[in-house]
Amino acid sequence: MPTAEENKIFEKAQDCVRCGTCHVIYTTRIKSMRFGKQCPPGTCNLIESFYADGLMYLAVGLMREQFPYSPRAVDTVYSCTQCRYCQTICEEYVEAQTMPVIEELRNKAVREGVGPLPEQKKAIERFKRTGNVYGTSPDKKFSWLKNYSGKAKDLSTGGKASALYFIGSHYAFSPFTENIPASVAALLDKAGIDWGILGDAENCSGYHALALGYADLFKASAQKNIDTFNQLGIKQIIVSCPEDYSTFNLRYPEIAPLNVEVIHTTELFHRLVQDKKLKFKQHKAKITYHDPCHLGRYCGLYEIPRQIIQSIPGIELVEMERNRMDAWCCGAGGGVKLGKQDYAIAVGKDRVEEAVSSGAEILVTACPICIENFNEAKAQGNYPIQIQDLADLLCQSLA
Ligand code: SF4
Ligand code: SF4
């Protein structure tokens, strides 16, 4: 029996008019049929039920108790990368709110014990045990400090600073991004920022609990972080991971007030470039930029990363066919990478192929999940392109 709260959210699903607009790039922006498609699960499975309108049908059917929540329906719901393309494009026309419905479909799956997918369940167990979905020992989060001799303060032991650099689990634990915190640290020091870290006391943002449908677990971990952040006496939290950034900015305020500014590293670097606190030397390269879903469609940061890249003398920035609000998801978001590794990489390959077809030598982005998935996609397809994090590019280009 659906709860009243469930029904309230699932009623939004009836706003979908099944127009199919969210299956493709809007026709005036389409450049080729090869890259004219949207919605990774719909495109990969070529079955209507995997697109947003299929998920909206599913929600209405469950609300009306027309059928039970079957294992096949669970697989469909957890194939969505929560890229937000459907809602972004839909908001321009009928204002259907697909994302809250998809989130509630996952919450319902967890409440009824039918979801998430087996590997995602294991990841959540690791999160409960170790504080991160990878199950890595928290002290590894700061292994980059071994070679660091800069100005960071330890805020967990009473150190005071105006900003906290929140490292984030994925940046710290993925072999593809574990050195990026050192690049960010070098940039913060170079610009003279008064900053610190939380050391072992840094907890995961809870993004994966939220994405996979564990609403109560997310609330508890968010509340813990909000209490910690509000007590630190900082003015700003500097965040590199787009999932953490959108979770802090868009979802934490639903739990309790967070009394500090949350700023993404790209926003901070942009300010620092404008204030001439970061200057770059000549760096000749042809680069394309991938918009991470949680930075672009979730938070509207499309131009700032491009402006920073273009502030490096010698860089030529070229666009992929699907860019800004039309960007194709890397394939790993929404906890999909934790549950459906091969599918995530197949989606990532589509984006790497698009980057190669732009003529770029380097695919730059600002998200650890995208960086990891693109590297794994690149290894499978042996594509002639380098994958690089924006902070690493800036650090390498410092004058
Ligand atoms: S979610 Fe919006 S864009 Fe997609 S089919 Fe429904 S009404 Fe059309
Ligand atoms: S959020 Fe993205 S992956 Fe999920 S249904 Fe919408 S367009 Fe498809």
**Element-by-element helix/strand order:** HHHHHHHEEHHEHHEHEHEHEHHEHEH
Note the gap between the termini: 63 Å
Total helical segments: 18
Number of strands: 9
Description:
By secondary structure, the protein is of the alpha/beta class. It has three domains: about 5-115, Fumarate Reductase Iron-sulfur Protein, Chain B, domain 2; about 120-270, Rossmann fold (3-Layer(aba) Sandwich); about 275-395, Rossmann fold (3-Layer(aba) Sandwich). It has 18 helices and nine strands. The strands form two sheets. Strands 1-3-2-4-5 form a five-stranded parallel sheet. Strands 7-6-8-9 form a four-stranded parallel sheet, with helices on both faces. α17 (about 370-380) links the parallel β8 (about 360-365) and β9 (about 385-390). About 50% of the residues are buried. The structure holds iron/sulfur cluster (2 copies). One iron/sulfur cluster (SF4) binds near residues 20, 21, 86 and 90.
